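Blinded run. Sample ID left blank on purpose so nobody reads anything into the name before looking at the predicted structure. Input follows.
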Amino acid sequence: MFNKVLIANRGEIASRVIRTCKSLGVKTVAVYSEADQEAPFVSEADESYLIGGPKVNESYLNIDAIVNVAKETNSEAVHPGYGLLSENTEFAKRLEDENIVFIGPDSNAINQMGSKLTARQTMEKAGVPIIPGTNDPVESVKMLNKLQVTLVIP
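Blinded prediction complete.
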């Protein structure tokens, strides 16, 4: 169990992670943007730190700022919530390099599953049943027709 977890997300997602951590006796660190200064999750956490401007790329996607807060607060782990940095290989790898636990899959798994082709090939090698299709990139509708794949467009 961790003593302190940084939540690298916002809004209801952050609030839920904070509540769960608190129920487990884990201290929480919230990071927030200028736009979210008054959001409930900021005051719900044990500690809160401003990490950037109101735009997501200035704050919640700012890997350096989040890692710096994690290190400064002695957070043992970072929970990314979902969306934002939750599937970011670079973020997971950076935390691994800093000896901070990424609560989620490791950077290698994120990298493999981020590419549908690599994910398919990985599952096939592992013996996981996969639906009929191709292990090669599809570059045109003409190529799809050759494969006799039905393209469903809503």
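Unblinding after everyone has recorded impressions. The mean pLDDT is 91.
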